[in-house]
Specification:
Blueprint (H helix, E strand, L loop, with lengths): L1 E5 L4 H12 L3 E8 L6 H12 L4 E6 L22 H4 L11 H15 L4 E3 L15 H14 L1 H5 L5 E3 L7 H10 L24 H13 L10
Parallel strand pairs: 1-2, 1-4, 2-3, 4-5
Length: about 230
């Protein structure tokens, strides 16, 4: 079985790749250099893809800075020190417009080329930042699009499935699952705004959610943080 696995180098996508590998999939890892301010995650993705035995690892370059509209790709401050209630309310400025739709479209193209009917993405609807393109209904809608929009789908030679094994897991459950699957968590990266010396800021939503997950799982986070 073949699968395309979206891999950012973060905790969620790394655990998802490990999950797919455990299920016996031959994985084509796909990472995007899209102009994100936390480009340090690209090195993490390389490390994780190699460690987890991806058959191939493709890094595609897109410049979403030309579109902007997000604190990750534009001159907008990354929110820091938000409470759990604030993180869970509304859509934050770290949302990148249509990012998962763009990423899944490329994953779908790669899957069709490799005759792979399976795509894995590490979205989660719990302990998340409230991004609209991480919801189960969005994933199901994209599967319908995949059937309508591809040669393989129209000719009936493939029925694409978007796998979201983490979508109903909390961050603590994801940490435990990663350990169960043998993911080296020191290889992963989460922070949206790393310090110049390569540490996590400790205050952005991504850091706070990660730290919360490790704390609730009773596991020490191997990453270093500022302060």
């Amino acid at each position: 079985m073949k699968a395309v696995c979206l891999l950012s180098g973060g905790l969620d996508s790394s655990t998802t790749l490990a999950w797919a590998r455990r299920e016996g999939y031959e994985c084509y890892a796909l990472t995007f250099d899209y102009g994100q301010r936390h480009r340090i995650e690209l090195e993490a993705a390389k490390r994780v893809a190699a460690a987890l035995g991806a058959k191939e690892h493709l890094i595609l370059t897109l410049d979403l800075r030309t579109i902007g509209g997000s604190a990750l790709t534009d001159d907008i401050a990354v929110p820091k020190g938000r409470s759990e209630a604030e993180i869970g309310a509304g859509i934050p400025v770290t949302y990148v417009p249509a990012r998962n739709t763009i990423f899944l479209a490329y994953a779908l193209a790669l899957a069709e080329v490799h005759e792979a009917e399976n795509i894995f993405i590490g979205v989660t609807a719990i302990d998340s930042s409230g991004y609209p393109d991480c919801r189960p209904e969005y994933i199901r809608a994209f599967e319908q699009l995949a059937t309508l929009a591809t040669k393989a789908g129209v000719e009936g030679t493939a029925r694409f499935k978007v796998h979201t094994p983490l979508i109903h897991l909390s961050k603590a459950e994801i940490v435990r699952k990663a350990m169960e699957l043998g993911v080296d968590l020191s290889l992963t990266w989460s922070c949206y705004e790393p310090t110049p010396d390569g540490r996590g800021c400790g205050g952005c939503d991504a850091c706070l959610l990660r730290l919360k997950g490790f704390r609730e799982a009773g596991v020490a986070d191997p990453l270093k943080y500022a302060g």
